[in-house]
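User: Write out your own:

AI:
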Amino acid sequence: MATSSNGQVFGKRKEQHIVILASGDRIRHMTIRPWMVTLTVCFLGTMAIGYLGATTYLVLRDNLIGATMARQARMQHEYEDRIAALRAQVDRVTSRQLLDQQVVEDKVEKLLEQQMALTSRHGRIGALLQGADTTGSLPSDGPVPADKPMIDSNDQAALPNSTQAFAALLSEPKMAPGSDASRKPVLALGYVPMTGENVADRADRLFSHMTLSLKEIEAEQLQRIEELASGASQTADEIAAILKRQGVPVDEQASLPVADAVGGPYLAPQSDRDFNASLNALDAALTRLETVRDTAKRLPFANPAPGRDITSRFGNRPDPFFGGLAMHAGIDFRAPTGTEIRSTGSGKVVTAGFSGGYGNMVEIDHGFGLSTRYGHMSRILVSEGDTVEPGQILGLSGSTGRSTGPHLHYEVRRNGAPVDPMRFLNAGMKLTPLIN
C-alpha cells in the first residue's frame, strides 16, 4: 500500500524499453533508456541540418560564381567597346595630325623660300654697298646699317629659323601658373592636342604673322634701296654740276654698264623683278657717283697751303718791281720759308725744276686740260714723271725767281690759259662734304 501510495504521490516512472535481439539460440536484450533516444534524435537532426546547409551553400555558390562571371563578361565587353572607340578616335586624330603636319610643312617650305630670297637679296645688297663703301661711293647722308636682322625681337616667333618656328608652332599654349594645364608635359613633335586650338589654326595665325613680317622686311629693303639710289643720284648731280661750272666735262655714259642684247615675250612684272630693277638702279647710281667722285678727287680743288692767308689774288695788280699794272695769273699764299706745299689734286708731274720768274716750280697735269703750277719753292721734293695724289708734299716754300719774299705762287690753267684758282678753291669747299 505504501508503494502504491508513493507512486501516486510522485507519479509513475517512465518505463524503460527493452529491445530483445534473438539470433538462433543466442538471445540478447538491450535496454533503451530515454536519454539515449534523445541523444540519437539530436544527432540525426544535426546531421540533417548540416546536410541541408551544405547543399544550400553549394547551390548558392554556383549562383554567385555564375553572376560574377556574367558581370566580368559584361565588363570585358564594355572595355573592348571602349578600346575600339579609343582606337577609332586615335585613328581620326592621327589622320588629322598628318594632314595638319603636311600643311605646316608646306607653309614652312614656302616661308623658307621667302627667307632664302630675302637673305639672298640682303647678301647682294651687302656686297654692293660694301664695295661702294670701300671705294667711298656711299652718300654721306645715308649711312648703311651694318647688319639689320630679318625680324625684330618682338617677332622672334616669326622665323629666323625654320626649326624654331616649327617647334613654336607645335608647342603647348602658355597657361596660367598653378593651373592643371600648366602641369602637362611638353608636347613632342607629331603630337596634336585633343582639345583646344589645333595645329592648322595655330599655323594659319603664326604663318600669317611671319608672312606679314617678311613682306615688311621686303618693303623696307626696297625703300632703303630707293633712298640710297636717290641719295647717290642727288650727290652725283651736285658734284657733276660743280664740275661743269668749272668747265670739267663728266662722261657719265662711260660709267654705265654696257647693256647686253636681251629680248623675250612681255610678261607682267613680279616683285623679285621689281627688286632687281631697284637694285640695278642703285648699282647704276652708285657707279655714277663713284665716277664723278673719282673725277672730282683728281682735279685741283684742294688748298696747296692749308691754313695760310692769301696775300694777292688773281687778276690785274700793281707790279711789285715796275709799279705799273700787270696781270697776276694766280694767287699768292703767305708761307714762310720751309712751309710744306701740297698737291691740290692727283696727276703727273710734268715740270720739276727752275723755270724763269717762277723760280723753282712744279707743274702737275691733272687731265681734262687742267694743270697747276707751284712757284718760288726753296726745295723741290718730286721729280718729272712722278704720279702724285691729293695732299702729297711737292716741296717747301721759298723766295726763288721773281719774288719779293717767301711765299707760294699758285696757278690753275685750263688748256694752257690761266683761270682764277679761287673758283676751284670755293668749289672744293662745296665738294668736300660730298666726296669725303
About this structure: The helical segments are 2-10, 34-134, 162-170, 199-245, 252-255, 271-298, 421-435.
